[in-house]
Amino acid sequence: METENLGIEDITTAENSKKSSDDLLEQFNKTARYDKNGDLEVAFPYNGNETRLADNYGVAYKRLQSLMVTLQKGNNQLPQYDKIIDDQLSAGYIEKVTPEMLKTTGPQYYIPHRAVFKEDSETTKVRIVLDASSHASGQLSLNDCLHAGTNMIKKIFGIPVRMRFSRYVIVADIEKAFHQVRLQEEFRNTTMFLWLKDPSNLVTFSNIQVYCFTRIPFGVSSSPFLLAAFIYYCLDSNPDSLNQMIKDNIYVDLSVYH
After folding, report:
1. Which pTM value belongs to this model?
2. Contact present, 89 and 95 (Cβ < 8 Å)
3. Residue pair 252/224 in contact by the 8 Å Cβ criterion
4. How many alpha carbons lie under 13 Å from residue 64 in its C-beta half-sphere?
5. pLDDT for 154
6. Are 190 and 53 in contact (CB under 8 A)?
7. What is the pLDDT of residues 98-119, one digit of tens each?
8. Which residues pair with 95 in a beta bridge?
């Protein structure tokens, strides 16, 4: 049980937390911007440690070697994993990193990834999980360099309770919600990951293909905050009588109308 629910949380701590949350939301609103196509892009909320962020390439390379051993042992798992990456590339969620992109200033970071298998699933049997908390000994991870942000998720208990007071209920889900939020170009070099040009061949430096995310990746500590702030920003930028109901009844990427 959290002491804040009892009304005995330290006032200074609570006030500092509130100010921090307000500051992060203010920073989000100031840094969010529209690209030339009119799409809203967001910035990572760095906490000041990003200047000490190592690129984590060595760890990511070794983790890729281990991943390939696992995928090659499985039944048709490697083609499934490769297809997910191809699909993300086709959808524009990721892009290939060029040598010119690596010459830009600013922090760089390679995110290791692994496979999670769920054979009994009818839809997603293989899922890619990113590890943005990975780091070499004595180094920082990407998550160490980000504000996780305030928890903007509504208490789920109230949503189904309010639903019971209405005769009709509409439930809406944002498909691939995190991948709907575009990441500003100058932050993408901290979302790089390694894959293979030809997955049927060995893991060698010449066979490495580097990608980066163009959208906020699930697995980065600030992504839940960025998603929620993004939704609120879009609602506030487009006034409508339904907006407050959406804010009161949204849980991550699921919203209820009643």
Report:
1. 0.84
2. yes
3. yes
4. 26
5. 66
6. yes
7. 999 998 889 999 999 999 988 7
8. 212
Q: Give the whole-angstrom CA distance, residue 186 versus residue 201.
A: 32
Cα Rg for the chain, rounded, in angstroms?
20
Could you say which of 3.30.565.10, 3.10.10.10, 3.20.20.70, 3.40.50.2300 is the CATH number of the domain covering 21-248?
A: 3.10.10.10
Looking at residue 82, its pLDDT comes to 96
**pLDDT < 70 positions in the chain:** 1-19, 122-124, 153-159, 257-258
CB 33, CB 40: distance < 8 Å? yes
Cα–Cα distance measured from residue 56 to residue 20, given in angstroms and rounded to the nearest whole number: 29
pLDDT of residue 258: 65
> What distance in Å separates the CA atoms of residue 218 and residue 209, rounded to the nearest whole number?
21
Distance, CA of 143 to CA of 45 (rounded, Å): 10
What is the tens place of the pLDDT at every residue in 219-233?
999 999 999 999 999
Nearest-angstrom CA–CA distance, 191 and 85: 14
Are 189 and 217 within 8 A, CB to CB?
no
Helical spans, DSSP H, in the chain: 11-31, 57-73, 77-91, 99-102, 158-163, 223-237, 243-248
> Residue 141's Cα: distance from chain center in Å?
15
